[in-house]
Amino acid sequence: MSSHEQKRMEPYPTAPLPLVVRSMRAVRQCQDRRPGQPGMVVLYGLSGLGKSTSAEMIAIKERAIYVEAGESWNKKFLLQQLLKQVGYTLDTMPRTIPEMMESFCTAVSAQRVPVIIDEMDFLTKKQGMVELLLEAHQKIANPTILLIGEEKLRYKLAKWPKVHNRVRYWVEAHKINLDDVQDIIAADNKALNAEEENHPGIIDFDPKLLEAVGALCEWNTRRMRTNIDLMREDAQARNLTALGLGDYDLSKVYTGNPDQGGMI
Questions:
Q1: What does the pLDDT look like over 8-44, one tens digit per residue?
Q2: What would the DSSP string read from start to end of the chain?
């Protein structure tokens, strides 16, 4: 990953959620495996549970090659994006797909870093894309490839037995709980205090309020983070340093419901 990309992906300081810890452990154990053993890890689960955040943190910590696939991608474009991550430019990279594959695998073998493919579901819909990653797994010396997608990804990959059989670890994303939310808030408060002592954004949230909000947003990581920010903004606007269950209008809770609107 280039220094520019690493800076762009640097996450806001937060607590290492269990999914981040589990994903990081799987990738590191995969890297430490005996040569000749399967080298793929699959991280899958519902949207908003922290999969991409986990991937970005792994990319930063392990200096991994990271790409987020798109609906419009084809083989050539995927390899172009991967080659950019190992230092090539459009002017210097090979022109044919076989040459691009060889150059990429040679570079990754030399750098000895993981490869992360986010939004893998898009690639399962395109002919030859999954096979392309299988070829990379076969040609990179002792590879570690992390594939990330939605909750049905593990079943989609079953269509390719040669890929499915090379998955060493399956990591399922789960919903967070109250302890996780309190860890997020504590990490946020620490970061805010580092910016300014007694920062007005440091709010004492009542666990009963967090429980109520968590239930409404179904303990979805992304939605819960959004609600923490919304509650913090509400408290600051009213010059409050603490927020209890009776202090916050629960109709303002962001639930992800498409009919929800008018929060501002």
A1: 344 444 556 889 999 999 999 999 999 889 999 999 9
A2: --HHHHHHHPPPS----HHHHHHHHHHHHHHTSPTTS--EEEEE-STTSSHHHHHHHHHHHHT-EEEE--TT--HHHHHHHHHHHTT--TTTS-SSHHHHHHHHHHHHHHHT--EEEESHHHHHTSTTHHHHHHHHHHHSSS--EEEEE-TTHHHHGGG-HHHHTTEEEEEE-----HHHHHHHHHHHHHHHHHHSTT-TT--EE-HHHHHHHHHHTTT-HHHHHHHHHHHHHHHHHTT-SEE-GGGS-GGG-----TT-----
pTM of the model: 0.84
Q: What is the pLDDT of residues 59-89, one digit of tens each?
A: 999 999 999 999 999 999 999 999 999 999 9
